[in-house]
Amino acid sequence: MRLGFALPQVGSMAGPDALVSVAQKAESVGYDSVVVLDRILAPVNPRAPYPASADGTLPEAFQTVLDPLESLAFVAAQTSRVALETSILNIPFYNPVLLARRLTTLDVLSKGRVRVGFGMGWSPDEFQAVNAPEKGRGERADEFLEALKAIWTTNPVEYLGKHFQVPKSIINPKPVQKPHPPIYLAAYSPPALRRTARFADGWNPGGVPVDGMRQMLAGIQGMAKEAGRDPSAIELIVRANVYVVDGASDDKRGISVGSPEQIGQDIAAVRELGAAEVQFDVNFSPTVKSLEDVLAYTERIRSLAG
Cβ contacts of residue 161 below 8 Å, gap of 6+? Predict the structure, then answer.
């Protein structure tokens, strides 16, 4: 099972020294990837609650966020082995032609280390800020992924959809990885799970209990088979938002929340489930207050994962 570690790309410590220190530390202690997220603003009066917190409150860390792809490009030049992973980029914020070029450039310059996790976004305020419609975003996401794959795998490229069009053109270079960098989707609703079954190389859930992941993954694999794909080709990429606290009762704690021993049990459970990778993010843990804390957790979690 591969292991990923989230960069300190958010919050007060976000900056060049922290990015390089954590990326190099993760690489040196044996992680397989470094991971970034996609957040563009922290609304003062949010129109929707934050789905990952119990009371819907946005983490204070979201008030300072470095761009995900520029952060990965920066650490790519300071590392040699770790994969460069997004978990996740929000599809509605991007144009597939321009994003394909940025991701291809990163893959070429890093010599084939890019892995791309996508999601759909949830914040109405962010949709408004980038002038992206919420209605019809599923249909747009399907076209986005079709266009992205066409750009990455064909020449001349031509894509004529309802929402995105690429006139017949030569677009080079292509990514180093063939046929293209792995695509993972964070998906929870039935249409999104179906999209994962059709387009993705992996499913990237966060905050889902192990039994829930087992059931949802089985559903994705069934839909993949119906779509003519090999169900076993879809990897399970688990996002673990780590909150280290003094022990929590098992009937109340979420996955990757609790004592180090409990988090170790969660790691073992997703390994038994067949996860191909776990991405650990400690940036929002109440026990992480400094860069030194983040660096310590790279080793501590690596030890827990065995």
Answer: 143, 146, 147
Q: Amino acid identity of 237? A: I
> What is residue 215's three-state secondary structure?
helix
Contact (Cβ atoms closer than 8 angstroms) between residue 230 and residue 273: no
Helical packing angle, 16-29 and 68-76, nearest 10°: 60
Distances 102 to 69, 71, 97 between C-alpha atoms, Å: 8, 12, 9
Backbone angles phi, psi at 150, to 5 degrees: -60, -45
C-alpha–C-alpha distance, residues 101 and 119, integer Å = 19
pTM of the model: 0.95
Q: To 10 degrees, what angle do helices 16-29 and 291-305 make?
A: 20
User: What pLDDT is recorded for position 246?
Assistant: 74
The pLDDT > 90 percentage for the chain reads: 91
Mean pLDDT of 266-294: 95
User: DSSP state, 136?
Assistant: T
Of 205, 171, 15, the closest CA to residue 97 belongs to 171
